[in-house]
Amino acid sequence: ESGVSLVNRTGEALTDIVERVSNIAELIGDIATGAQEQSVGLGEINVGVTELDKVTQQNAAMVEEATAASTTLKQEASTLQQLVARFRLRNAAPGRPTARPAPSARPEAAPAVGEPRKRAVNDAGWQDF
Fold first, then answer.
1. Overall pTM surpassing 0.90 (yes/no)
2. Where is this region: Disordered (predicted)?
3. I need a labelling partner for 57 at 20 to 30 A (CA). Which of 33, 40, 96, 107 fits?
4. For 111, which DSSP code?
């Protein structure tokens, strides 16, 4: 009887070991699935960071261009100011601005509704038939 009892206990222990190995294999499968999902998520984050870096570099380039354009504009404005300062107008008081706003040209008013338009008259030998 003790031999049979030992065989039965050994069988139960082996069954328990198989169940535990099966549970461990399932846990390892779950870990592998989680690692794969994390890998996909990290890939998407990497794409986002790469795009953000690209946009940041584009913005930096635009800032450099704007700075260069601003510097050039400042230099050109200074040059223009020096060139304009050479001009002198007669009867202008020194040290006072000589530029005056140009008078606005007013367009001719359109004829009122129902009023006939004025026509140019040229009677140089023409007759109406």
1. no
2. 91-129
3. 40
4. P
